[in-house]
Amino acid sequence: MSTLTVTKLTKRFGGLIAVNGVDFTFRSGVISAVIGPNGAGKTTFFNMITGLYAPDDGIVELDGRSIGGAKPNRITSLGIARTFQNIRLFGSMTVLENVMVGMHGRLKAGLFGSIFQPPRVRHEEIEATLEGYRLLEYFGLEEWMNERADSLPYGAQRRLEIARALATKPKVLLLDEPAAGMNPRETAELTALIKRMQGELDMTVILIEHDMKLVMGLSEHILVLDYGTKIAEGSPDEIRNHPRVIEAYLGKSAGEAEVIA
Ligand SMILES: Nc1ncnc2c1ncn2[C@@H]1O[C@H](COP(=O)(O)OP(=O)(O)OP(=O)(O)O)[C@@H](O)[C@H]1O
Question: How far apart, in whole angstroms, are the C-alpha atoms of residue 219 and residue 207?
């Protein structure tokens, strides 16, 4: 289990401060959420943790080790995996292949091994295929194993993204709006799945989500951003009743305010 800490984390785009000096500790083995109105800086925050953006200021630490500014591949190999707001699967590859891609960084065989296939490499590939199959089973995706990823129903594609992220064996899993576009039944299934996964795999899970029912039902600890600044942190009950959070949502749109009330 791992703890992820950010200190004074900051990102600017020209004159705009998208994330402004945010301090937060994502506790080990807990589901946390990052919420806030549209444009609050949530995705930019994730992008800095996962190496897509270098922070302009501040520190990102995984178990006390500074990882800020490292490249995405390095961050993945250190144990942080993520999914994206918009599904980013390899659509023309099979469902199993998508998960195997997630494992690739962990496999020992390099290009030489893949071409010449000594017995050790063949053994590793068989093990990886079995592990991929087990992951698909866990996510209820095994029936589509040999189908193209883009032929799956929407909810199944979202689950496949999480399965692929898990194939890297992360200590910390970041989910960017995992329930976006899902119907209430799919959202309820996903909620149960994330809960089960976090409990059984003992991971630190961090989610960005607009669906407040999902956030309040899943997370123990919540960070609230508004205009890039941390305006609150606490338990779901503390956040629900926090005057600055209510104000931030009320100040935006009636639709967004309703969901947190
Ligand atoms: N690459 C970029 N270049 C310039 N501005 C950006 C860039 N990425 C994000 N921004 C701006 O930074 C601010 C924060 O955006 P971000 O996408 O992080 O917010 P968010 O909270 O994830 O929003 P949403 O809930 O709508 O996804 C916004 O004003 C956005 O327009």
Answer: 8
Centroid of ligand 1 to alpha carbon of 209 (angstroms) = 15
φ, ψ at 140 (rounded to 5°): 65, 35
Question: Counting atoms of ligand 1 from 1, which one is nearest the CA of 53?
Answer: 1
Q: Which atom of ligand 1 is nearest to the CA of 11?
A: 12
What is the distance in A from the centroid of ligand 1 to the CA of 161? 22
What's the CA gap between 30 and 198, in Å, rounded? 8
What count of residues does the chain have?
261
- Our answer on whether the CB atom of 221 is closer than 6 Å to any ligand 1 atom is no
Spacing, Cα 251 to ligand 1 middle (Å): 18
Domains belonging to the chain, first-starting first, are 1-79+170-261 (3.40.50.300), 89-169 (no CATH)
**pLDDT (tens digit per residue) in 77-109:** 999 999 988 778 888 889 999 998 878 766 555
pTM: 0.88
pLDDT, tens only, 182-206: 899 889 999 999 999 888 888 999 9
Q: Tell me the CA–centroid distance for residue 43 and ligand 1, in Å.
A: 7
C-alpha to C-alpha distances, 206 to 52, 105, 198, 261, nearest whole angstrom:
17, 22, 10, 22
